[in-house]
Task: structure prediction
Amino acid sequence: MPLSDLIGIWVAAFLTLAIYSFLYKDNPVYRFAESIFVGISLGYEIGLVFYRTIWPNLVERLIANPGPNWYLAIGGILGLMLYCRYIPKISFLGKWALAVYIGYFVGVELMQRLHGDVLPQIKDTMLPLNGPFWGSLQNLLIVVGVLSVLIYFYFSKPHTGILKPISKVGVYFIMICFGASFGYTVMARISLLIGRLTFLVDGWVRPMIALIFGSS
Amino acid sequence: MSDAMKIGGIDKRWVYLLVAIGALIPIIKPLGLPVLSTPAVEALFEKIESLEPGDVIMLSFDYGPSSAPELDPMAESILRHCFQRDISVVVVALFPLGGDNQAKIALNKIVPEFPVVEGEDYVYLGYKDGGLAVLRRMAEDISIVFPQDNRGIPLEDIPLMQRVQNYSDTELSVSLATGIMGEWWAILVNAQFGQPVAVGATAVSAPKYYAYLKAGQMLSLLGGLKGAAEYETLIGEHYPELKERSQIATRGMDVQSIVHLIIIGFIILGNIVYLISRSERTRAGGRLASK
Result:
């Protein structure tokens, strides 16, 4: 095994154990590993965005062919203006850039959500209830679930009279939804544990045992 | 203090230790518990089975190391499936914190297993920042967003990319996504551009994505490690020569089963302790009131 790989495996194993040491109690080793993670993540992202996006998509194009690509400079200038907020005298420029960004994003996102999310989901809730028994029962469950949860979140009228039992049904649907989400979340977290334990067993302990005692 | 209250006050570190032991045993000695596939996962497998050799799919690495245990097995299985069937793959990475690395790791692992040529059978275009903006622009022209591939070769010089200008030149887009990114593919790439989209999601995101699956905005949904294990099972059933290589998630499901049993046991125990404690408090309250 190359020395660089060996060092990498030991560093990864140490950092994994350092993070898990928090489960026993908070300690300086955990905080050291956490700080390294935060610092490296930020540095990695800055480098990646600069060399993979800003440089080839903006700088290189402007240098190589500025004529047809002049409009790219607008985005670049707006991006730089965001950093003006750190200079008190011209911090207002940062707000202008932010305003453009928010305006663009809201405009794009609004239509996108409407066409891609709201309308297809509403359409999929308009289901026939007169088909085969089990299909209709499933559709009924969806329709009742959607309507009762919507009524639960309707706060313009007090939940009294007919609204009370319907919103109560909505609460049960929400609770089932939370239960399913919790189950999936547990599975996700255990998957991460599996990933780290598999690394510790198969990537660290076993190769080290093989290295020390021979691979037979 | 009653026995029930003593159990209720158990140090949570004992729970962690039990979970760790429960997870370690199947990792050291796999149990080989069966994994059954579901229609949500079968849809992706069947879609790739239905493609002709030479057809192109897009595979997007929209996750980082924090989701790798769940999504790496999906990436590896899908790449193996495509290369086995001579399906060409355009690989991109859109997740800033490690999507690029995960794509390279997967390709470096799977490519040597098959006689595939970079630029002809697959191409890795690299990472690009911008998320939604990138997805939107790729509908017009991929080369606007990715002027060159990960090696720095202009797209017009890459044989595979001469056949692919935008989504419409591909048969399917697969996003292996953490967080909201899978949703973007459904609400933008599928809903607005009509591209068939399959999403391999982390288990945390999966419940929300079922609404998109049911509405037909996703062709298929692979939810967490279970989804990955199901895909591995399908690969193993149809391509026995790949079975031994596609076992990571399947092995992980042994651990899931054991740890879930432990957690279910603790949930039941916790509820029993809660009910006993409540009845003890009620009785104690009744005695105080009668005095």
Notes: Helices of chain A lie at 3-20, 28-64, 72-82, 91-125, 133-152, 163-213. The interface with chain B takes residues 23-24, 41, 44-45, 48-49, 52-53, 56-57, 60-61, 108-109, 112-113, 115-117, 120-121, 123-124, 177, 180-181, 184-188, 190-198, 201-202 of chain A (CB under 8 Å). Chain A has six helices and no strands.
